[in-house]
């Protein structure tokens, strides 16, 4: 009997070469093989009488081979095997190209199932190269629901189906199963063996549904347990008690009135910091919702308690902006604010480090420079990071380690539907800022085609003439990239605009291939108003504030997800000026059009992200697994919401009964969670 961890090479029919191809699909051992679930299925369980076949159908036919197959050579190297098959209703011609061995396999007088595409000419019906199996033999690709797998070069469906069959048989009595029996029973879930068999080779659609439900539940249950355990262990971590000063004093000194959502988030955070446990909170809010104020309030609380705070931003420009904004918001109080970035002159840096170490500054705002070895704090009590996707968990952890269990506040502008937030940030408490400051103008949004290009150029010029600035966003960096669809590339397009359309204007270009320092230089000159037009890739997506920018033009807008378009649009409308977003697209398909329509009609980031999920599904939504959760094999975090809720409830219930997972029946679950932690240590810990 094979073991789940056995190398895939030991499976019959899999040699070195195929093993290498399978590795590209993430399959290197038996466990990975049987957990490689079908992408979809083809229902080949119905037989169609020959007389009922129509041209273009793909169908299963149960028929007898009526004559000895004939082999002929038409041209040099081209071999044909021809035969005729019959059932009660009629006859069908079958031809195989270049598979002469089939002449030996198909025997006159035997009945087979043929599956293939039908051609009808007059009343002659035929199939070319149909798949076939003996009617009375073992059948894996005809007469049933057949799995369809994602493939790679060198691996065919037939090969993978065969390997799957053998793989399942090899490990039939040791299938991976991490569900405690009592949970499986209460949820009325089928047995593992049934689930694995039917997810690959469903007996019928009902069996497939049962199998899916069990496997999805199991995956989400394990994840829920893992995340809950992190949360449980975190709650126990003690934190510095920061007693809450009179917040009214803070609010009344502001130049504006904090929104209800801001006040709630601040109250949440203040309560956390006073609780004696370490705060671990995510503040989530649309662009422009005023997250910085929440940070400022927390910093003030820490300062009043005689403690220090650190604020880390992903780029130098953002660090500069936050430094300015926070200095302004904290101006009414006697708070010393310092800045620390990589590009600072050495002398200034030394002095700053000294001030941080002595505790003279209450707040330091900076980039990754903050996690450098030379940085020491006197009493760091609060760590704030902005735009969390841009930081690795390790970087955040490095900053946190400079204090003794400091409170942490993470700010993210990626709106995530509520149903998902709990899952994705299972280890964080979440405050949502779902209200924009009053008087915010809507960014007028237009989806347009090529025929509007000259008018848009005129409009761009008009904005610049009025003293405003314009962003142009392109999907590709330069011409050397593979670009079959002829998408706009930032470098060439910037040149084109500078020479042909706007030779009199100042145009800059920024993209991900530039060095960080060069990127910052171009961005800074745009911020300072030295450039009229900035042609960029999505690098500008991260919250840079240019209040004078009033127009963002997105080229090949169909290339972006809604949430991404929303982020890009958020680059304008940040000042007093009426702002616009133009989405260029020649896409004709309905889905792309529907997406751009949503952008024209909605400016609510949460609504947009929900639409995005509906249209694209979560895989795309999260792009390159930005959310940092372990990859799901079968569960879909967005559409399987009901099972997700059931799994979460079951996980809560189980952990209440057995928080340390000591019971015998929970050992496999515990082992699975440990495995998950080991594989995803960076994200889960
Ligand atoms: P984001 O959530 O995108 O980080 P910011 O904190 O940068 O948003 O705030 C965006 C702008 O809105 C800033 O100029 C800030 O001063 C302003 N702002 C924040 N809160 C309010 C409020 N309650 N009323 C008016 N303006 C506000
Ligand atoms: Mg911000």
Ligands present: adenosine-5'-diphosphate, magnesium ion
Shape: globular
Q: In the CATH hierarchy, what is the architecture of the largest domain at level 2? A: 3-Layer(aba) Sandwich
> How would a textbook summarize the main sheet?
7 strands, parallel
Give the end-to-end Cα distance, rounded to a whole number of Å. Answer: 36 Å
Number of strands: 22
CATH class of the largest domain: Alpha Beta
**Overall mean pLDDT score?**
87
CATH superfamily of the largest domain: P-loop containing nucleotide triphosphate hydrolases
Provide the helix percentage. Answer: 25-40%
Strand content: 15-25%
Q: Briefly note the CATH topology name of the largest domain.
A: Rossmann fold
Q: What would you call the structural class?
A: alpha/beta
| Poorly predicted runs of 5 or more residues | 618-628
């Amino acid at each position: 009997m094979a073991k789940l961890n056995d190398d895939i090479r030991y499976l019959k029919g899999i040699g070195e070469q195929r093993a290498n191809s399978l590795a590209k699909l993430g399959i290197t051992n038996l466990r990975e093989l049987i957990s490689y679930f079908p992408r979809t299925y083809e229902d080949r369980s119905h037989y169609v009488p020959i007389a009922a076949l129509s041209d273009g159908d793909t169908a299963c036919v149960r028929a007898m081979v009526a004559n000895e197959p004939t082999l002929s050579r038409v041209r040099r190297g081209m071999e044909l095997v021809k035969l005729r098959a019959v059932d009660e209703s009629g006859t069908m011609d079958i031809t195989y190209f270049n598979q002469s061995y089939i002449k030996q396999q198909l025997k006159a007088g035997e009945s087979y199932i043929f599956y293939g595409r039908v051609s009808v000419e007059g009343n002659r019906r035929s199939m070319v190269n149909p798949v076939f199996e003996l009617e009375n033999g073992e059948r894996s690709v005809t007469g049933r629901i057949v799995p369809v797998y994602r493939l790679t070069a060198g691996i065919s469906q037939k090969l993978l189906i065969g390997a799957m069959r053998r793989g399942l048989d090899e490990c039939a009595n040791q299938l991976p199963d991490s569900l405690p029996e009592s949970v499986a029973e209460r949820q009325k879930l089928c047995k593992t063996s049934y689930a694995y068999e039917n997810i690959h080779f469903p007996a019928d659609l009902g069996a497939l549904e049962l199998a899916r439900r069990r496997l999805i539940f199991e995956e989400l249950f394990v994840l829920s347990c893992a995340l809950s355990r992190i949360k449980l262990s975190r709650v126990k971590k003690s934190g510095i008690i920061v007693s809450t000063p009179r917040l009214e004093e803070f609010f009344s000194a502001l130049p504006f009135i904090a929104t209800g959502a801001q006040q709630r988030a601040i109250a949440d955070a203040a309560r956390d910091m006073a609780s004696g446990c370490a705060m671990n909170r995510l503040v989530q809010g649309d662009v422009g919702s005023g997250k910085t104020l929440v940070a400022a309030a927390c910093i003030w609380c820490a300062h009043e308690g005689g403690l220090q705070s650190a604020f880390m931003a992903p780029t130098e420009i953002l660090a500069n902006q936050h430094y300015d904004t926070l200095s302004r918001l904290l101006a009414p109080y006697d708070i010393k604010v310092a800045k620390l970035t990589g590009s600072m002159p050495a002398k200034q840096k030394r002095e700053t480090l000294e001030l941080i170490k002595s505790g003279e500054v209450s707040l330091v705002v900076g980039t990754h420079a903050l996690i450098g070895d030379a940085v020491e704090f006197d009493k760091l009590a609060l760590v704030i990071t902005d735009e969390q996707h841009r930081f690795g968990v390790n970087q955040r952890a490095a900053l946190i380690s400079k204090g003794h269990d400091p409170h942490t506040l993470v700010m993210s502008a990626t709106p995530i539907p509520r149903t998902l937030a709990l899952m994705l940030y299972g280890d964080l408490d979440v405050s949502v800022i779902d209200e924009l400051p009053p008087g915010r103008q809507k960014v007028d949004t237009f989806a347009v085609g090529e025929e509007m290009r000259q008018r848009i150029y005129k409009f761009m010029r008009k904005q610049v003439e009025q003293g405003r600035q314009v962003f142009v966003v392109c999907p590709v960096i330069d011409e050397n990239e593979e670009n079959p669809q002829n998408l706009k590339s930032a470098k060439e397009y910037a040149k084109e605009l500078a020479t042909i359309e706007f030779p009199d204007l100042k145009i800059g270009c920024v993209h991900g291939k530039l060095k960080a320092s060069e990127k910052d230089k171009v961005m800074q000159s745009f911020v300072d108003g030295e450039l009229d037009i900035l042609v960029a890739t999505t690098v500008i997506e991260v919250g840079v504030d240019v209040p004078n920018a009033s127009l963002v033009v997105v080229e090949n807008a169909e290339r972006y997800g809604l949430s991404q378009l929303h982020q890009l649009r958020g680059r304008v409308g940040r000042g007093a000026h009426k702002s616009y977003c133009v989405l260029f697209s020649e896409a004709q398909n309905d889905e792309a059009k529907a997406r751009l329509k949503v952008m024209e009609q909605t400016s609510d980031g949460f609504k947009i992200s929900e639409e995005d999920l509906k249209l694209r599904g979560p895989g795309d939504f999260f792009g390159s697994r930005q959310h940092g959760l372990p990859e799901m094999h079968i569960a879909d975090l967005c559409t399987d919401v009901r099972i997700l809720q059931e799994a979460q409830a079951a996980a809560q219930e189980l952990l209440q009964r057995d928080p340390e997972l000591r019971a015998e029946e929970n050992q496999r679950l515990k082992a699975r969670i440990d495995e998950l932690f080991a594989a995803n240590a960076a994200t889960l810990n």
